[in-house]
Automatic annotation (TrEMBL):
<dbReference type="GO" id="GO:0007165">
    <property type="term" value="P:signal transduction"/>
</dbReference>
<dbReference type="GO" id="GO:0004175">
    <property type="term" value="F:endopeptidase activity"/>
</dbReference>
<dbReference type="Pfam" id="PF18294">
    <property type="entry name" value="Pept_S41_N"/>
</dbReference>
<dbReference type="GO" id="GO:0006508">
    <property type="term" value="P:proteolysis"/>
</dbReference>
<dbReference type="InterPro" id="IPR005151">
    <property type="entry name" value="Tail-specific_protease"/>
</dbReference>
<keyword id="KW-0645">Protease</keyword>
<dbReference type="InterPro" id="IPR041613">
    <property type="entry name" value="Pept_S41_N"/>
</dbReference>
<feature type="domain" description="Tail specific protease">
    <location>
        <begin position="181"/>
        <end position="398"/>
    </location>
</feature>
<dbReference type="GO" id="GO:0008236">
    <property type="term" value="F:serine-type peptidase activity"/>
</dbReference>
<protein>
    <submittedName>
        <fullName>C-terminal processing protease CtpA/Prc, contains a PDZ domain</fullName>
    </submittedName>
</protein>
<dbReference type="InterPro" id="IPR036034">
    <property type="entry name" value="PDZ_sf"/>
</dbReference>
<dbReference type="Pfam" id="PF03572">
    <property type="entry name" value="Peptidase_S41"/>
</dbReference>
<dbReference type="GO" id="GO:0030288">
    <property type="term" value="C:outer membrane-bounded periplasmic space"/>
</dbReference>
<keyword id="KW-0378">Hydrolase</keyword>
<dbReference type="InterPro" id="IPR029045">
    <property type="entry name" value="ClpP/crotonase-like_dom_sf"/>
</dbReference>
Amino acid sequence: MRLSYRPFLLGSIALMTACSKKDDLPAVPTGPVTQQEINNWVLDSMRYFYLWNDQLPVNPNINLETGAFFTSIKNTADRFSLLYNPEDPATYANDIRSKYGIDYSIISWPQRPEGVIGVIKLVVPGSYAAAAGLKRGSYFTRINETSLTANNAATLSEQLRTTASGTLTPATIDGGAITEGVPVLLQISRVTENPVYSSALVSSYPRKTGYIFYNAFIDGYNNNLLDVFRKFKSQGIAELIIDIRYNTGGSLAAAAMLTALVAPDVTEKSTFVQYSGNNHLGSRTLDFATALSVPENADPIPFSALAAARLSLPRIFLLTGSQTVSAAELLINNLKPYTKVIQIGETTVGKDKGAIIVKDMRSPRRIPWVMQPITYRLSNANGNGNYTQGIAPQYPIDEMSRQPLLPPGDVNDPLVAKALAIINGGGRASGESAPVFRHYYDVGQQAAINSVVIIPR
């Protein structure tokens, strides 16, 4: 998840667990901060908060560089814990989507001699990529003017991810002919992303069907989401398609709100999420009222304010992809106790855990590093979770099966078409029987790894 949710800020483990007598508190170190002091702070924090704290090494090498030390003590099953230094951008987990505002896949393309081609899946409005004319469905054949092949697709993409600029060479396809254009410059353009990309009434017969492309759970846009659902309710929609195929998560509060907007028979005291931690942190249950009360970066929206927008649908269609992760997976799993979920697309990432944010809050601060250690296993109101291998759809479809890619919500998009076919009582939809392209690199999967649900304290 790109954005953290109401962080719990750690002063220090020693201060939190010390005896009440002032004389018993450990002395605050003085002088220059040493590598050993930083690593001991990391280790002490992990011993208290980390989900796998009972499996931490007994005598780790505290002389390692901080990042290497953190990696050396993490559990081998841990794909998602993060450590970074806000004063050192090189320590951040960057991805192409957040840097350039673009998401793409490099897939097999037999018509091209090199055998692969780049397909742009998403361009963030207002980004440098959007201003350069790139859009969903565009093709490209080169990165930094080097022709794409199956062997270099990942390497070239990693070069783009780890530098401040680069180029894509767009291409047009006419029949079997591929024509390259002028290279397009990409530069870092961090923009505020409105996660509600589009919403529409996509079908009126036999049942009014709404569609929303929702790309992140960002509390600052919760009122925009409410506006969409108020409109849906006024239109009398009976079916809803929520497109989260590229959604890499976000706020727990926003996920709770979207769940409450569509699930029938949910009250503010209904359980939204359960989470269980280590021997220090134990287990907790969060109802909808509590989850809504602690947004990350906006004023809380109480449960009562949702009434005019709630749809209370007996089933919901969720369109997913291989980068759907974190709070987006929480939505899928935690809707299931309350309504029927019909999932179409690809298996999700499999992040069924949450984290807290750990900082040194002493004044003056000695440790500049920030941690997001995996802390809790997440489950729904029925106690079901454990989707580490991802959540598989009932109807697996690769969106790349139909080229070129269509705008979000287009009724001929293979995922949308399948949902409408089910609603209309039809059979196989376009794209279900089409050949599946081999994926050599997916930008969104790197963004998904950097995402984590932040648990309130």
